[in-house]
Amino acid sequence: MQKKHRSRNSQSLFLMKELFLWCVRLRMNSRKLIFAGAMTTVAAALLHLWFLSHPLTVSSYNSLNGSMRPSQLSETLQEPRIYRIQHLPANSIISQNSSIEVMQSVPVEGRAGDSNGKRWKTDDKSKVIPTPPPPPPRSPTLSLQRYIWTLTPIEALLFAKKEIDHAPIITEDAELYAPLFRNISVFKRSYELMEMTLRVYIYSNGKRPIFHHPYLRGIYASEGWFMKLMRGNKHFVTEDPEKAHLFYLPYSVRQLQLALYVPNSHSMKPLTNFLRDYVNMIAAKYPFWNRTHGSDHFFVACHDWGPYTTVAHTELKENAIKVLCNADLSEGIFVAGKDVSLPETTIKFPKKPQRHIGGGNRVSQRPILAFFAGYMHGRVRPILLKYWKDDEDMKIYRRLPHLVSKEMSYIQHMKSSRYCICPMGYEVNSPRIVEAIYYECVPVIIADNFVLPFSEVLDWSAFSVVIPEKDIPKLKEILLAIPLRKYLEMQVNVKMVQKHFVWHPVPIKYDLFHMVLHSIWFNRLNQIQDPQSH
């Protein structure tokens, strides 16, 4: 082969020499001679490129791939060549030092020709062009999504329940902090299936301001924020009730109280009768309530009166999913495992609901053991004040004294305390629980029979202390007995759980809106039963 290359080079030099002598015989002037020289150079370059394009023997091939035998190498060089690109799978991972593997896995062959450089036709029978590999399989999530869309609503719920029962085990996640959860594997899988499956139908019936008019400010703002974000959600909301897995009754108990309660009457009959008539109208106009007797319907109420407004309608009280801030088991209205405990959040700036959240002091800058300031209503707070109002390590006040607040505000007290006392008021719920989380202060919850928010998935012992009402006299002893290491773990966990208790004007994954919706979804799944299991 090397002899052939030398013969080709000699032929090229001979042609150039003959061209030059031909120009001299014609007695060409200098300009024509220069032009002829330029043409000769171009011709030589083209000839050189033509020679390079022909198949060549790679003498060092064995150094790149010693596994190929000489006979195989000879066959490879003799066979006709075609341009071919081999597709790499989408999930192939190639290291930075694997250039040889890349070269071998994506061969690029020359044009058809024999070893002598003569073009010839390819024998279709002897040369089979390999078909490209099939495209990579579609995303399992997408395939599962499409399968779920083929199911009826009840079939989809039963399928999701089985999937959650067989959730793949995970111990950590980039978006979730495992120590906060009872079972992070179950929560993760349930949340994924909620995003793929859940569709909610919102009834359009009812006039403002009781219906469709969210109340976004103050301590009852949670019901308004959920209504606002649910109504504006395009992912979960469906306009076709036949495709819905849940049905939302979009009324506000706070607006109901403002519109119908007669001051100083001490009677909730106008409110309860109004809701009774509303549900009866929904049941008469649509088939969906009667289909399940209301068990796939839900409402959201943060006002203290939320559970009591249901008593005039038996199915609303007993079957519907009640999402309540006043999640008190002792009243016989809230049912754990079916109903949902709603976090009570105080919103002072509706345009910026996240204002003043975070920024708690370091542990070394929290000299106060425990802090509480507030009105003395309910059965728990007077006992708390009685035992601990004069303690030097704990700051327990009726209301924060004016002179004290000048030096250190309410928020600064929470940011400077290791524990924040969250006693019940008239009802078991308290906005201080979420406030403590916002300011990275470990909440101490004193409210018997209170079902804590998201307790079906969150492990509250990881970031809070729950003390029975009877143990208020031993409050300081209990707090001081907590090892420093345990407290530091809880304080870190409070920071990590914060994201699950924040309203966003545009909801984000795992925020308060999605956590509330997930609890509704999760509890609904727990209530349905597979008919084949009986």
TrEMBL record:
<dbReference type="InterPro" id="IPR004263">
    <property type="entry name" value="Exostosin"/>
</dbReference>
<feature type="domain" description="Exostosin GT47">
    <location>
        <begin position="197"/>
        <end position="479"/>
    </location>
</feature>
<dbReference type="InterPro" id="IPR040911">
    <property type="entry name" value="Exostosin_GT47"/>
</dbReference>
<keyword id="KW-0735">Signal-anchor</keyword>
<dbReference type="GO" id="GO:0016757">
    <property type="term" value="F:glycosyltransferase activity"/>
</dbReference>
<keyword id="KW-0333">Golgi apparatus</keyword>
<dbReference type="GO" id="GO:0000139">
    <property type="term" value="C:Golgi membrane"/>
</dbReference>
<feature type="compositionally biased region" description="Basic and acidic residues">
    <location>
        <begin position="116"/>
        <end position="127"/>
    </location>
</feature>
<feature type="compositionally biased region" description="Pro residues">
    <location>
        <begin position="130"/>
        <end position="139"/>
    </location>
</feature>
<keyword id="KW-0808">Transferase</keyword>
<feature type="region of interest" description="Disordered">
    <location>
        <begin position="111"/>
        <end position="141"/>
    </location>
</feature>
<comment type="similarity">
    <text>Belongs to the glycosyltransferase 47 family.</text>
</comment>
<dbReference type="Pfam" id="PF03016">
    <property type="entry name" value="Exostosin_GT47"/>
</dbReference>
<keyword id="KW-0328">Glycosyltransferase</keyword>
<protein>
    <recommendedName>
        <fullName>Exostosin GT47 domain-containing protein</fullName>
    </recommendedName>
</protein>
<keyword id="KW-0812">Transmembrane</keyword>
